[in-house]
Amino acid sequence: MNPHVLGLSAFYHDSAAAIVRGSEIIAAAQEERFTRKRHDASFPRNAINYCLAEAFVDPPDIPVVAFYDNTALTIDRTVRNFITVAPAGEGAFVKAMSELLGGKLALRRELKQTLGAERPLWFVDHHISHAASAFYPSPYRRAAILTIDGVGEHATLTIGHGEGTKIELIRELNYPHSLGLLYSAVTGYCGFKINSGEYKLMGLAPYGEPRFVRTIEDNLIDIRDDGSFALNMDYFAFPYANVMTNERFHDLFGGPPRQPETRIEIRHMDLAASIQAVTENVMLRLARHARKITGEKNLTMAGGVALNCVANGKVHREKIFEGIWIQPAAGDAGGSLGAALYATHVGLGIERTSGVRDSQKGSNLGPRYSSDEILSTLDRMKAVYERVDTPAQTERVARAIADGMVVGLLKGRMEFGPRALGARSIVADPRRPDMQATMNLKIKYRESFRPFAPAVLHERVAELFDFEGDSPYMLMTAPVRKELRRDFSWDSFRTQGADMLEVINKPRSTIPAVTHVDHSARSQTVHPDDNGDFHRLLTAFHRLTGCPAVINTSFNVRGEPIVNTPEEAYRCFMRTEIDLLVLEDFLLWKKDQPKFEDSDDWRNKFELD
């Protein structure tokens, strides 16, 4: 029998652990889901303990632990950077070195304390970890590999090739020239938190006009035909300071950075649209070059920039490759999985197996809870519930959604990665024009402009969207079919200063709550092999309404990690205007619940991002 290998990511953001046996992914989870600290960068002690328990393996039986980054090379890059910018950046250098050296020392100590004994520790280069997380779980025996992020040790993007168990990185671009850092710089300038607010910038982009594209390309980035590029470092502060941009950058775009929670101006929307267009241009060129130099018909992707579903959708629609598979935990969390798989297949020489579908198991790789555990939690919380087995439960929940109720779902194993895919989701009716604003303001407690994604039956996606293929992990956008669209103008907001909420509530299609202002949607195709319960719910909703899709958003409020346990789900349910909570085979109606005594100052507990 193949040995178990444990993979870790830690000390930057989104710490995680994963455990594999050969090509089989047994378990994977982010540390934030256990500590309730969003993007937790600490050593993933809780995630490790979960993975070991899920795999039924004792630490002495693990031959190797793989870490997703080569700390020595990261220190080398940090020192070289300081030599280049010195004497500027002394404070940033001291801070970075303290974190790096402290993390490296803590890694072995924490690992020994958690496992109870020392185990061999292998360091896998950062972009190799990303590449492995993309290629090995994919359904392809051979493929091109594209990894793009902020920075690993030195590399910021790579083009590689995978065949069987072999991965080779063919091209790379090095720090400070980074598409991820450029996008993050604009994210910070527009008032969103770096390393977590990039998806907000992407969601804001369709409200703007890309009028700054020429400004960006003339001043900030020199893009070549093959997708490689160079940043003009005269506009950036990140090599020598703990901020991303400088005064020259601010002057270029008309003023100082936006302060968080202040009004979003037209120039912020236009800058978001512009950097998104530049990003798409670079990614299209990179994809074409990857096809050219590898000769492969399939593409796999990872790295934080691979979470840009709009750019991914553009690459998909251009048909540069016949197939595209993107790691659902494409950021640093997924590096733990990639490190474990690389150590397995390359380090230990274990053969790779693959099937028609990917080996990610729908990314449902986290904890699940038994009926007895849930019952104990509900009785302790003095909750009012009823127990309803499927299929009766499925029909009742589908009817509740069709009647306009908002439903929280905790069913099966928790998802690995930033997207809720039906196991820890909030779902609602996408046909209701007011549902986007309602869910944003009354349930998610987040900005009203933020779009919601549709989960759609795999076999009926073409009825709603101009899309061919699969998007099981909500990582590609697609246009809503033209015959379903309604005339909609955003000009009144840009020219007359109309209220954003008023414009958002105007229907843009027959599924307005999941249709963005540019008539796009970040769809998740739901296959019964990935999540049978969720597929049955969508089927029942379609049977009732004729609509094969529901709104699917993560089960959390702004600033809080996605819920993990039944207690966390119940607390979120009671703190928001969710109408119905589904905990496996238990149903809880808000109207039936006793007064909720909540002593925590929970709104201030989580950092808004």
Please describe what this structure looks like.
- Helix 3 (71-85) packs antiparallel against helix 4 (90-115), helix 6 runs antiparallel to helix 10 and helix 10 packs across helix 11.
- This protein folds into three domains: 4-126 and 335-359, Nucleotidyltransferase, domain 5 (2-Layer Sandwich), CATH 3.30.420; 138-326, 2-Layer Sandwich (Nucleotidyltransferase, domain 5), CATH 3.30.420.40; 371-605, DHBP synthase.
- It contains 20 helices and 21 strands.
- The mean pLDDT is 92.
- Strand 9 (221-223) and strand 10 (229-231) form a beta hairpin.
- The protein has a nine-stranded mixed beta sheet, with helices on both faces.
- The protein has 609 residues and is of the alpha/beta class.
- Helix content is 36%, strand content 17%.
Shape: globular
N- and C-termini, Cα separation: 45 Å
Number of helices: 20
Low-confidence stretches: none
Largest sheet: number of strands, sense, barrel closure: 9 strands, mixed
User: Radius of gyration in whole Å, from Cα?
Assistant: 23 Å
Q: Within the CATH hierarchy, at the fold level, what is the topology of the largest domain?
A: DHBP synthase
How many extended strands?
21
List the helices and strands and how they pair.
Blueprint: E1 4-9, E2 16-21, E3 24-30, H1 32-35, H2 45-55, E4 65-67, H3 71-85, H4 90-115, E5 121-123, H5 126-135, E6 142-148, E7 155-163, E8 166-174, H6 179-189, H7 198-204, H8 213-219, E9 221-223, E10 229-231, H9 247-252, H10 266-294, E11 298-302, H11 309-317, E12 323-326, H12 332-347, H13 371-380, E13 386-387, H14 392-402, E14 407-410, E15 424-428, H15 435-443, E16 453-457, E17 476-479, H16 491-496, H17 500-504, E18 520-526, H18 532-545, E19 549-554, H19 566-575, E20 580-583, E21 586-589, H20 602-605
Parallel strand pairs: 1-4, 4-5, 6-11, 11-12, 14-20, 16-18
Antiparallel strand pairs: 1-2, 2-3, 6-7, 7-8, 9-10, 13-21, 14-15, 15-19, 16-19, 17-18, 20-21
Helix pairs in contact: 3-4, 5-12, 6-10, 10-11, 14-18
